[in-house]
Amino acid sequence: MNQSILSRFSTMKVAVVGDVMLDLFEYCHSDQSKPIDSEKPGARAYKAQKLLKQLGGAGNVAANLTALGVHTYLIGVTGNDGHHLTLKQLAEQSGIHYSFIRDKARPTTTKNRLYLDDEYLLRRDDEANHPIPELISTTVFNEVTFELDGADAVILSDYNKGVFSEALAQDIIRGCRERRIPVIVDFKPPNRSYFRDADIIAPNATEAEAIWPEFDRSSPIKGGLNELYSMVACRNLIVTLGAHGICGTDGNNAFHIPAIDVPAMDAVGCGDTTRALLALGHASGLPLSRSAELANLASSIVVQKIGTDTVSIEELKVQLPS
Q1: Which of the following is catalytic: 23, 186, 199, 272?
Q2: Which of 172, 202, 225, 292 has an alpha carbon 20 to 30 Å from 153's alpha carbon atom?
Q3: Which regions of the chain are under pLDDT 70?
């Protein structure tokens, strides 16, 4: 695999469907704090010296694609609130074409991460995970169908926030199959049956263990990869293993690629990067193992960055032979 694969990305169109989120990162520093003894002895008050607002969930998958020059279409459900507008602004700034369907019965999914002196302390979530109404589900499907013309791949990004039902997922997969468009899926274990017959299903190691408790991330080929493959009922399976790399199988041939040794700063969003590169590699005609190598390389770049981030063509070129 060399840099020639990267030149194809700017000619490709990918639709991303699923749980769109707003990621907030607040960075506080002890030397900028002040005591508030009147409220609680020993407590201190902190003011965020830096606040980052970024697309999360399916939005981060889309951001990774556009950062690589891909024509990207993002379809998801938000609340009818101010964060809906923030997501629209972030999508426009990234050059993402989007359709955000508002549901007044839920908030926009928001994850607020707090860092103190660059240490990740906690995360506060604002979300709802009840199923979206049938009318909104129909609207999502219609928006997806509209974008299938000329699409090279579709990514379904499921964080179990209520967007996907079995009916919606199967309707999308069926429509893609009729058009010979590959479908790449990241799902939460409770919903795995929704996405049967997808071209690639790509859980992480924790999700794999939730499906098959005997899965061994340190030795996946001997430790349950085939059993996991039979349980998720897909054409190809990829499992991201964190510090143990990435593995996969098409049901006949299995592989395990070690992790690239880099200083890991923040794993937030690495899975989204992996799914984006798996889709591009697969749609470009790379063998499954080569697509996994490309995804593994991209995630090794992103893990060295703080917060939800993306990888660029230039960064990949540095790592790939010309």
Answers
A1: 272
A2: 225
A3: 1-2, 37, 265-266, 307-308, 322
Q: Which two tokens stand for residue 207?
A: 């999700």
Residue 296 · residue 259 · CB < 8 Å: yes
Quote the pTM value: 0.93
Distance between start and end Cα atoms, the chain: 9
Q: Kindly report the backbone phi and psi dihedral angles of residue 201, in degrees, each rounded to the nearest multiple of 5, phi listed first.
A: -115, 130
What residue type is 285 in one-letter code?
A: G
Locate 131 and state its tokens. 């199923």
User: What is the β-pairing status of strands 153-157 and 183-186?
Assistant: parallel
Residue 260 tokens read as: 């690239």
The span from the CA of 119 to the CA of 117, in Å, is 6
Positions of E strands within 44-163: 44-45, 50-57, 71-79, 97-103, 110-116, 119-126, 153-157
Is 250 catalytic? The answer is: no
Amino acid at 249: T
In degrees, to the nearest 5, what angle opens at C-alpha 168 toward C-alphas 91 and 207? 75
Q: Which two tokens stand for residue 179?
A: 């058009």
